[in-house]
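User: Hey, quick favor. My workstation is busy. Could you predict this chain's structure for me?
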Amino acid sequence: MLETNGLKFKTIDDYFLYIAETLGYPHEIKEHFVSDVAFSDGLKIHLDIFEYAKEAPTVVFVPGTAIYSLCYAEFMYKLGKEGFNVVGFDPRGHGQSEGVRGDYTISEIIRDTQSVITWAINRFNSNVSLMGSSQGGIVSFYTAAIDERLKGVTCQNFADLTAPESLQLTKYPRLFKYMKKLLSKAGDILPKTQIPVTSYIDLAQIPVRYFGNAKNFIESDPLTLKSISLRALQSLATTALPKKVEEIKIPVMVFQGDADNIFPISYTQQIFHKITSKKKMTVFPNLTHALVHENADEILPEIVSWLHEIHDNPATSVLETQFESTTKVNS
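Assistant: No problem, here it is.
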């Protein structure tokens, strides 16, 4: 039994249909997804699959902090209708997957991601790319450094978690600067201790339709994480990229809104300019950190164009786009 705002639902499907109707999703959306599981370190990883055609290119989708695959159902559905198989998944400890709730490391989620990539290749074909939102974008970027089976990655935001500049991404940058060493030790001593997600991310400043903001959504949704372990937070502060940014070989797209209150554009640009493989950066005016959830129709054309490039024509190119201004910088 699931409960939210005084309403009770017998099944997850019942709850999803309620959310889909509330948020105005296409009425036929749920019938286009099927569920399955992949296995990672012996844990069942829940999958939500939109199948376009067995021979079509496939996009594996990694959700963001505290949430789960079906939070992005509208985006995944509309992406699938553009001619892609889409495989969203709930990382361990999230959503409908196994694992202790909120207890994970970035390295473990990367292993989950690679297990789902393998599943997608076996189910469909080897023409697979990876996409992620927020924390999922970071995981996608890290996976790009070690898994060259991918045709490319598409990241809503990315980061180098051990770089000093990454402190900008926290709710209280000055405080976290001094807490980083303490956090590392606390994660070793009290790894399972849970802390609220809202203590390190300013969710109240992220607008989300119907709920008002991301904080309200996470607090009311029965499947989201309200807290994560100190071990997880330690991992978010100390996990290094598997290789230097300059050594990543597969194509990388990064996109975000210019009203993103978590990831400054200047921070994204610093990393983007280090990438030496085929790459693209797109900034959407007036869109927030929740753009994948809130603005699917606005962002899809740029993303679909990129996906056709990497799945159909992986030739080297560099493109930075300021959406609507048509400013392009080639190098």
